[in-house]
Hints:
By secondary structure, the protein is α/β, with parallel strands linked by helices. The chain is 47% helix and 12% strand.
Amino acid sequence: MKCRKCGGKASINMRQHRLALCKEHYLEWIPEQTERFIKKYRMFTKDEKILVAVSGGKDSLALWDILTRLGYQADGLYLALGIDGGIDYSDESHRLTEEFAQANNLKLHVVNIEQEYGYSIPTLSLVSHRGHGKPCSVCGLAKRHEMNRIARDLGYDVLATGHNLDDEAAVLFGNTLHWSAEYLLRQGPVLPESDGLARKVKPLCRFYEREMTAYSIARGIEYIYDECPFAEGSQQIFYKEALNQLETARPGAKLTFYTRFLEARQSGNLFIEKDIEKAHLHPCPQCGQPTSTPDLCSFCRMIEKAKTG
Ligand code: SF4
Ligand code: ZN
């Protein structure tokens, strides 16, 4: 297989794009494509301040790397969750994120959930009785709350996460199976800023997971290989496996599934569009962030509940 650009030996073949590239041209192609998506979906400009949520995994570190290479002002945010899967999952991901920031001379904010609120994520899940065994719903809630809080408090224009196509297609698949109209309406490369909620963007949403792995390896980025120990057996992983089977039989299926959804939504052809009323938001009396629940926001309610047992 030959590189389409230089005719040299290809190191990656992307069947879904009918494109094979050598390492050097692949390392150019990824940022070029990212820039194209940033512009296409109007994510942000060079004048805006971007906060990248970094977990120490390949996608978020690659995103930080790409944005920096493209000349964007991107700082990092690492949330220390206190998850210990026997391999010090959180410590290791924190170490790799710090190393990346130092090696590239980038600014990293670190928020330690336990120091901030008195509980690690697994403990918070136990004491707030929200987890039903797994801490993922508590973790998701805390991450959303903290990312928005930091972005807002520190004056960032936009919050960027490293979700790739496999993540987005799996979420879309789940939302479609359940016909979760509200989630379907909110899913996309850009969630605009609204009433105290920072704009959220996903610049890697059109890259396959294997493309991001290949990028990170080719760039020599050291990332945490292990998934969070609580990810095992999750619905999300099950959907990903189902979509991978589909992709093997029909290369490009995942990309088509996701991009056609975005096109349909943009052209107003998703019938759900018409019936959804916007949830009414008010500021949480505790933390000031917007919420649709009466009185305290879900996050502050969870902390209260944890404290009172
Ligand atoms: Fe949090 Fe994800 Fe781990 Fe669940 S799998 S605890 S959501 S990091
Ligand atoms: Zn609150």
